[in-house]
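Suppose you are handed a protein chain with no further information: no name, no annotation, nothing but its sequence. What can you learn? This example shows the usual starting point.
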Amino acid sequence: MINNFIKILVLFSLIFLNSCGYTPLLNSEKTNFYINNLSFEGDRKVNNYISNNLRKYKDSGDKAKSFDINVTSEYYKTVTNRDDNKNPKNYNIKAKIIVKIISNDGIEKNRTFERSMAMSAQTNKVTEKEMEKKYKKDLSDSLSRDIVFLLQN
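A reasonable first move is to predict its three-dimensional structure. Written in structure tokens, the prediction is:
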């Protein structure tokens, strides 16, 4: 009796979850906005990564809302601790952006987003530079998602 009840409960749960109408929030195919003007100041590489991620939102199509966006970025790499010989052992990598958004109806928003990661020092400096480049791209991708999320809401 209890076994049949559990089977029925699981069946109804699966049916309910399958037909609940869930769609991803950051689905770029169904955005209700486009970016009219996009300008950058600050760290060039962070700005390039963000620009590449936001490029797909520049197409106006039939979307009603348009935004002018100014992004000011900063990038920091600080040593968090050192070994006995005073060589860097770990780093903290931080990317910070200040976003100024002006909508087509004149409403202005200013937001600051910040992301950071820990990175360990490598004996091979070429490997360390490649890791730093990858981490910088990951931080910029995350900041780009923050901007898109802000524009959608």
